[in-house]
User: What shape does this take?
Amino acid sequence: MNTAPTAAPAPTLPTDGTDGPGGPGRQHARRFGLPIATALVMGNIIGGGIFLLPASVAPFGTISLVAFGVLTLGALALALVFGRLAHRHPMTGGPYVYAREAFGDFAGFLAAWSYWITAWVSNAALAVAAVGYLDVLVPLHGAKAATIGAALLIQWLPALANLAGTRYVGAVQLVATVLKFVPLLLVAVGGFFFFDSANLGPFRAGGESALGAVSASAAILLFSYLGVESAAVSAGEVRDPRRNVGRATVLGTLAAATLYLLTMVSVFGTVPHDALVSSSAPFADAVNLMFGGSWGGAAVACMALVSMVGALNGWTLLSAQTPYAAARDGLFPQVFTVKRRGVPTVGVLVTVVLASLLTVYNYTAGPSGVFEMLVLVTTFTATVPYLLSAAAQVYFLLSGRTDRVHPPRLVRDSVLALAAFGFSLWLVAGSGYAAVYQGVLFLFAGVLVYAWMSARKRATAARAAEAVNPAPEA
Assistant: This one.
């Protein structure tokens, strides 16, 4: 007897402002090919977190560069698993679709819920990172009230742009995307002309073991790889998804990893280790040391600030679309389906309020390490849909449902799925107790939401059945 839950038909989730298949304008929607799908993956991976991450992992020493290499291999394993899953289920939705198809509504809900948490916690982390570069332009001098106010303002401006409609979201995103790559390429290329190995500092600076340092720094660095699933999430919009999603995911991940590695090594070799550990704007510090004075750092700070606001702009929309899609399937409250000017307005408002409350809490709960704590929370919540996706692939392979998997690839796909699953578990272990504690609280709160939605769905179905077949009178 098969004890696995029977999954509902996997949904197709809209990402283009339509109402799904057959919705307005859907039949005329243009699908994008491999180059644009690759750019989508690379653009979503390279957000704003990279601008603060060199300073965040500097306390571990240059061993964090080893962690970056290990993380890249794990991210590629995940990319390949997402590619194989998209080959099997070439539809929009990504981890949500795979988990729901394999394990039923509850697993699909957990994937959607945890991905939503990851999105708005990432918003809080990006706002904290942006404050560090704002401090270069408008010195806040560490004043807590001013810092919190600036972080909240940086979160609410993109939210207001989203509420104004998708036209404004696109305009902000275009400018931010252009400016995002300027400081990264400047530091990645120019930094090697000013590289000094004396700046690298000790190989292992902390008191942890080598394995502990690699695990802890990799858990922080995972924040820079969020978005590896972008092509899989948008598979329904990709031309020939069985062929292009996997390729775009791997190519986009490799391109982002190359740029990341160049910038990380460049910053480590340009900024002295002691200064990098305490830096709130490492890219601005690197450019100042490269060219002298402060004008270069101020220009980089402006571009980095615009880039991070742009990343917040995109992630705010994404974090609103996730509950919108789940609400259409009855897994989130229906209020999240409310849209105006193409934007799920309730999702935007709920997202920015939750991110704002989390920002205030983390600034007031501890004197330092706010960005690192928020990043580690996203690491934990992001690994939930990754774990469910890898487990779904194992289920599809071992349950005999290999009708779309070529037999010679069965062993390879199984090894990749197990590697991706083990890699995700390793990241959870490296997140630390405090981050797992906050993440579990957020995750378990969703169980109550699911219970409420399931009860309402069953009651509605019972009333509908009774209306069709009323009970006989006594």
